[in-house]
Amino acid sequence: MTTTGDEFDSALALAATGILRDFNQAGVILAADVHVASRLTTMLNEANESVALACALVARAVRAGSICLDLAEVRNEVGDDGDELSWPVLDEWLAALAASPLLAAPYPLRLEDARLYFDRYWREEEQVELDLRRRAAQPAPEVADEAALLAGLDRLFPGSSYDEQRTAAQTAARQWTTVLTGGPGTGKTTTVAGLLALLAEQAEIAGERRPWIALTAPTGKAAARLEEAVRRELSDRLSEQDTERLGDFHARTLHMLLGRRPDSSTRFRHDRENRLPHDIIVVDETSMVSLTMMARLLEAVRPEARLVLVGDPDQLASIEAGAVLADLVEGLVAGGHIKEAELRTSHRFGSEIGELALAVREDRPEDVLAVLRSSGERVHFVEEDDPREALRSALLPDVLAIRIAAEAGDPDAALAALDRHRLLCAHREGPWGVDHWNRTIERWITEETEDPLWDTWYVGRPVLVTANDYALGVYNGDVGVTIRRPDGSLRVCIDSSRGRLDFAPSRLGNIETLHAMTIHKAQGSQATEVTVLMPGEESRLLTRELFYTAVTRAQDRLRVVGNETSVRLAMGRRALRATGLRQRLTLEQQPSGLTLREARPNRYGPRGPVE
Ligand SMILES: Nc1ncnc2c1ncn2[C@@H]1O[C@H](COP(=O)(O)OP(=O)(O)OP(=O)(O)O)[C@@H](O)[C@H]1O
């Protein structure tokens, strides 16, 4: 137990007493968790310490991206830090909770089997479940002409190399909701483009108007990539007639599609009362969608609109709470609500990166190490104790290329150089973190150019936008470079989903230097070459999902800096989040006429009224 008497440690809640103090001092819960628990228990006159502890642990779980606290699992999950603590016995803990005023009106907490929720997430999870069940319970969409559908599938997905995609498109054509999954380069976008053409043809045969299509993704970068890939597919592979039928379309972020409201950051213009007008809605990079955003999207989709959720469930989950895509894959398919549409064969890499990604995904550590050490052209494993020199020679040419183009006032060349190489770290801070490597690379630039970078804004500074700025039209995840103009002034050129924009540096508020970026932030984007710094062995972020996400950011070449131990540790650990959506979706269908909440008894106590 790491008991510390440091009264200046901000993680310690000085006012905590009893069991909360013990858990806080052991480092299991933070001061913020203690405050949440103290407020709730004081407000509702709850004196039971185990209930207060449960509140603090829910707050802790949500901080780590979970939707709820699994009371049956939390002891295991805390690991060694919890060894000397007195944990409540599960049945007694659950009984204390069931009897607590915190689980009665106004229901700050909700209990679902052994899962404890804050009310907001419980409601969102329930809403997502109900909306998905309702969509799945409708009669399947009608096929206007069965023979034309089969002929269309053969035309759009010809030959045996398109077998998987043809089957996936056929499945999607026959259901309202489809979860289309696959790793990088498995042909998800190709399938989407073909499916859209197929549905447009069916609409034409049925004498309906051209379907109104929405392409969307959680970030601007991912939305732009989706639009570009679908357009490329249409122009390279599909006939003029198929392309014509689709008309024009643009991809937008989910926030933009749902319509931002100036008075709320969690509510949108389109909701249950004002549904989206589209007939087909395709969401790419669904693994990055949080539970809250999925709830907002599902309530806004018309029941008779098709929803195609595309993504890779093996990637890291959303930055905000939830693991929606993984839950949907398991819950919707296992619950018998929809048929699976899974793509497994990679068509892009055909090389070591694809092999490596598959071995990581399929949990084959020996194969992972074999590919890393195979000395192939595309994958390189840097196993040195001090990798700085290796990194310097790998990274500096591209960093200097950005700077030379920026000095010449050439944004195209600077942005192209920026997209050539990404240095990815697990953490923001520490010796393997983004901040450290941003500073190190800036020092290398100074050494190389003999030009000290005194100012925050310097020529060639690559930047990452970290928050949406609707007024400027730049979005979280957009990247840019600082360019010198002929008159000597600096401008920041941003490659936004709306095209190239440029600003005076002082106008940009939420910006970070982008010589290095976190793997979490790199989700939804790719670079020609990627260098991954494996975090230290003690890092809690070192998981298979983190490693897989990092590896799959590389289009052409990948360099992994680490050692065998870090690779094995990453492979052995999962970034699991506690959620209840897959359990909810796999429960048996309820008898008609009852709402789900009435129909399902709770083993551990009342659920509260149906609202
Ligand atoms: N059946 C196929 N046979 C040969 N090549 C294919 C096939 N399907 C797709 N491709 C090609 O493979 C590449 C990847 O396809 P696509 O972009 O559709 O995959 P993806 O799963 O959307 O990739 P990512 O999500 O990684 O961007 C493209 O160049 C595409 O033209």
Automatic annotation (TrEMBL):
Role description: A helicase/nuclease that prepares dsDNA breaks (DSB) for recombinational DNA repair. Binds to DSBs and unwinds DNA via a highly rapid and processive ATP-dependent bidirectional helicase activity. Unwinds dsDNA until it encounters a Chi (crossover hotspot instigator) sequence from the 3' direction. Cuts ssDNA a few nucleotides 3' to the Chi site. The properties and activities of the enzyme are changed at Chi. The Chi-altered holoenzyme produces a long 3'-ssDNA overhang and facilitates RecA-binding to the ssDNA for homologous DNA recombination and repair.
Region Disordered, residue ranges: 590-611
Catalytic activity: ATP + H2O = ADP + phosphate + H(+)
Other comments on record: In the RecBCD complex, RecB has a slow 3'-5' helicase, an exonuclease activity and loads RecA onto ssDNA, RecD has a fast 5'-3' helicase activity, while RecC stimulates the ATPase and processivity of the RecB helicase and contributes to recognition of the Chi site.
Subunit description: Heterotrimer of RecB, RecC and RecD. All subunits contribute to DNA-binding.
RecBCD enzyme subunit RecD N-terminal domain mapped to chain residues: 25-117
Stated name of the protein: RecBCD enzyme subunit RecD
Similarity comment: Belongs to the RecD family.
Amino-acid positions noted as binding ATP in the UniProt annotation, renumbered to this chain: 182-189
GO cellular component, one term: exodeoxyribonuclease V complex
Any one biological process term the GO annotation gives: double-strand break repair via homologous recombination
Origin species: Kribbella antiqua
